[in-house]
Structure formats: C-alpha cells, structure tokens
C-alpha cells in the first residue's frame, strides 16, 4: 500500500458556505419580527445537507429538509450552479439521497412521482425522470449507516438497499402474534410502531436501461453502506454478523461479487467499522473505525478514526490516529494519494 495522507477539512468552498447559511435565513427573518422566537417557528426552519459535487465540478446537489407541521419532515433536492451562482430545485417533487453517475450525465435518487415511490433517475438538468424500482424500508435501527445507493463504473447498473420479510415475519403476523425480537427506539411513523417489523435490509441491483431488478444478498442479517468498486466486480457493504446481532453490536466490512453474490469478509474485529469506500484504483479501502469492542446501537462509544486497508482486508492502518478527534466518512482524492475527512472540535465540525 502506498503512503496516504489524511487531510482534515479546515476550509470550505464559499459556495458551499452560502448553501449552509441560506438554510437559516428564514429563522433569522422570523426572529427579527419583534415577537421573539415561537415554538411554531420551528416549522419554518430549513436545513441543508448531503452535498454532492458533480464529476466535472460545476454543479452541487444538496438536500433541503423542511418540517411544515406534524409528521415526518420532507426533503427536496436542489442544484447550485457554480458557473452562474443560481439555485433551483432539481425535481418537481420530494427526493433524497441524490448521487451522480460516474460520467455526470445522470442522477439517481430516492423519491416519489405520482403514485410511485422508490428509486429514480433523472438527467443532469433534472429532466426525464425515470422510475427504476420500488424500495422498502425497515424500522430496525441501523446506526451510522452509509450510502444507500451506488453506481457501477459504466453507469449501466445501480446497487441499492431495500428490505424483505425476515424469518420471524410469519409468526409475528400470525394468530396468535409471536414476538421474538425487541425494537430499540422505534422511529417509524414518528414512534407509533411498537414492534420490530422483522424486515431485513439487502443489496439489490437494477439495470438502468431494462429496469430489471435482481436481489444480490439475502439471509437473516442486514447489509448496508454500499460502494461499488471501480472495476465493477465487487460491492463493499457493512453488516453485523454477530451470533445475536440484536444483543451484540459489531459492524464488519464485507465485499460481495456483483455477478454471483459470493461474499468475502474483510474485517473480523471486536470493534466496529463504518462507511467503507474504494480507492480510485480499487486496490485500497478507506473506512471509519474504532479500537475498543464496547459500542452499541445507542452511540459509538469512542471517536471514530480514519483507517485504510488493502482490498484483501490485510494491512489495516489507522492513519487518522494523530488527530485525536472524531473523524467523519472518508472521501478519496481523484488521484488516490489523499483522503479527506471532517473533524469534530469542541462541538463544531
């Protein structure tokens, strides 16, 4: 493995700063009306996040999240043109999780159009929305999960996360109802769900042209945090394969063949690993990791640091060890000689 440099992001593109500030303009306007900040004003706040730069670095996609009343917040995808400085919604409806294809010609996202919801694509200018696949969720907690979709290098396929019924589903929906799993901190329907839905998160692949969908992984576990290799032969994912995953929290990193579903386990540690990303040449993998075995679904019990390893899972190195703060998800430079991470410092990032 060649020597890598870990960069903590200390400066931000002015355009990105403008995007972040714009999310709070409505709050300052409300507060400045002389009535003070009221609890109902919270519904007017908008937050900006999930910033995604286009491959040619001329357009930034970002999400705008709004809570207009009771119920779950809604999210829209916006586009900021770095050439003109203009901002506009990418879509006519709601959407989230937008990701560019490798050539920048298409954008995949999760959204709703008419009576259909799930995985869509649009052209880079927001035109030609195309429904690809239905996507199901789960109320089971998957803390610190990463990417929900990832493009193949040639843009012909998209891997995404959806769910299927688990082995307990039949008894849990039978008569009498048999409950064998607890639900930690229910979040679906704003906490109205009392029982685990027993659905399992798996990796699916959809052909962008034919819209044919195939399920790549199955079984009693949850797979998430995906990243497709530059050679398009394997997809990285994270899964808790502990003997009793409801009681023991231990994420490990795996790679699954995109053709036959064969799985390689890359880490097998007592600590947790998160959000793996391939290097541009596909020979190394960067990820967040911890050292101690003590962690839980509640929170990561220590600061996550930046780690790298060979694609085989060997030669693991904690290259973020010199920065004694919590480090965010890794982002490789285009040359593969540097990795960028955010760093938390006294409550700020």
From TrEMBL:
<dbReference type="InterPro" id="IPR011042">
    <property type="entry name" value="6-blade_b-propeller_TolB-like"/>
</dbReference>
<dbReference type="Pfam" id="PF07676">
    <property type="entry name" value="PD40"/>
</dbReference>
<protein>
    <recommendedName>
        <fullName>Dipeptidylpeptidase IV N-terminal domain-containing protein</fullName>
    </recommendedName>
</protein>
<comment type="similarity">
    <text>Belongs to the TolB family.</text>
</comment>
<dbReference type="InterPro" id="IPR011659">
    <property type="entry name" value="WD40"/>
</dbReference>
